[in-house]
Amino acid sequence: MSDIISCGIDIGSVSTEAVILKKNKQNIEIVSYAVLPTGSNSKIAAEKALDDTCRSAGLKKEQIHKTVATGYGRINVSFADKNITEISCHAQGALFFYPDTRLVIDIGGQDSKVIRIDENKQPIDFLMNDKCAAGTGRFLEVMAQALEIDLTHFGEIFLKTKETVDITSTCTVFAESEIVSLIGHGEDKNKIVKGLIYSIANRVSTMVERVGLAEPVCMTGGVAKNTGVVQAVEESLHTKISLPEEPQIIGALGAASMALRLK
C-alpha cells in the first residue's frame, strides 16, 4: 500500500491551523503543521496554511488525497473535500494522542467548548460558549492589557503567587472595570492575575458540570499553553489533564484524521 496523505484545516476566528498526516502500513504520523492568524479573510488564511504545511513537508498540493475543513470558517475552504463540525474534529484530534480520552476541554481565542466522548470514541454531548468572550483567549488578552502585564507571564505568575483576589464579574467588560478598580485601590497585580485564572477555571468547571465529568480529560486550544489555566482547571475538577505538545492544532489534526477515512 502506498502512503495516503491527508490534510486538515481548522479556521478559527483568531487563528487558522493546518495539519498534514501520512498513513502507511505501519502507522499514521504528523508530517507538518502550520499555525497563523486568520485575519480578515478566512479563505486566504486557509490557502496560506495549506501552502505553508506543504512547503514544510516538501509536498505538492496534488499529493494530498483528501482535505477536511473545520471551524467557524470551514465553508470558505473551497479546496476541501468535506466540511466537518469542530466538535467531531476536536474529539478525534484528542483521541489521536490520547485514545482513552473521555472529555475534551477546548479554549480558543473567541470561544470555549466541552466535549464528552463515549467508549466507542464518539462525541455524545457537548457545550459551547461562542456568545461571550469570558473565559477565552480574548478575555485573557483584554485583562493583560488592563494590567499592563505580558500575557506570556500569566502562567508563571499564577504558579509563584500564593494568595489570590476573587474576580466576581464573568463578563469581559465588567471584569476589566473590576480590575481597573482593584488596581486603583492598590491591590497586588499578581494576586489579580491568579484570581482571573481561577475565574476561567470556575467557568470551565460549570460547563463540565453541565456535560458531566468523564475521565481521562484532555485540554486543547491556544489557552491550554497557559500553565496556570491548566493547573487551575485541574484543581477545580480534581483530576489530571492530558496536554498535547501543541494543543492549538488539535482541531486541524482531527480533521486530517477524518480525511484519511474519506473514499
CATH class annotation of the largest domain: Alpha Beta
Q: Name the overall outline.
A: globular
Radius of gyration: 19 Å
Spans of 5+ residues with little confidence (pLDDT < 50)? none
Give the strand tally: 10
- Helix-strand category: alpha/beta
Within the largest sheet, what's the order of strands? 3-2-1-4-5
How many helical elements? 8
What is the terminal separation in angstroms? Answer: 15 Å
CATH topology of the largest domain: Nucleotidyltransferase, domain 5
Number of spatially distinct domains: 2
Helical fraction equals: 25-40%
Q: pLDDT average, as an integer?
A: 92
The name of the CATH architecture of the largest domain is 2-Layer Sandwich
Detailed description of the structure:
39% of the residues lie in helices and 22% in strands. It contains 8 helices and 10 strands. It has 263 residues and is of the alpha/beta class. A hairpin with a 4-residue loop joins strand 2 and strand 3. The chain folds into 2 domains: 4-96 and 249-259, Nucleotidyltransferase, domain 5 (2-Layer Sandwich); 100-243, Nucleotidyltransferase, domain 5 (2-Layer Sandwich). The mean pLDDT is 92. It has helices at residues 42-57, 86-97, 137-147, 154-160, 172-184, 189-211, 227-237, 250-259; strands at residues 4-11, 15-23, 28-37, 66-70, 82-83, 103-107, 112-117, 123-129, 217-220, 241-242. The chain starts with a strand and ends with a helix. The strands form 2 sheets. A 5-stranded mixed β-sheet has the order 3-2-1-4-5.
